Amino acid sequence: MDRERIFEKAKELGELIAHSQVKARADEANRALSADETAVDLISSYNDKREEKMAALEGRQPSAEEAREINEYLQQEFNKIAENPVIREYIEANQTLDQVLSQMDQIIRNAISGSGGCSGSCASCSGCH
């Protein structure tokens, strides 16, 4: 198979994904997030807090304890904004799309290397690895 045919198949796969329900859900979640002033404000506030914590560390290496505390603080703040239904849907929809893309990448890599253990049917699968 020549390169042109490979690129043609890659484009075809990209178009299938672009027109999939998974992509449509992610696109709708992106639109909903952009249109929701509360969600946008929550994200902006979270980003400000994150930048403030990072600025406090500028020019120095934090101790392991300080790094853990900052990480915990930011995770708690993220969990708070993720309670917003619009933000939660955005996160879930985009994670699902990312998982599909990652699975496609793994399937392609396994097919190239000849390994894989994929029967081609997801019914018998415990998930792509």
Q: What keywords describe this structure?
A:
YlbF family regulator, mainly alpha, 5 helices, YheA/YmcA-like_dom_sf, YheA-like fold, 0% strand, 129 residues
Written description of the protein model:
The structure is a single chain. By secondary structure, the chain is mainly alpha-helical. It has a single domain (9-111), classed as Up-down Bundle (YheA-like fold), CATH 1.20.1500. It is 77% helix and 0% strand. It is built from 5 helices and no strands. The protein has helices at 3-18, 21-35, 37-57, 64-81, 85-113. Helix 2 packs antiparallel against helix 5 (85-113) and helix 3 runs antiparallel to helix 4.
The residue fraction in helices comes out at over 70%
Biggest pleated-sheet summary: none
Q: In angstroms, what separates the terminal alpha carbons?
A: 27 Å
- Label the CATH architecture: Up-down Bundle
Say which CATH homologous superfamily is assigned. YheA/YmcA-like
Number of strands: 0
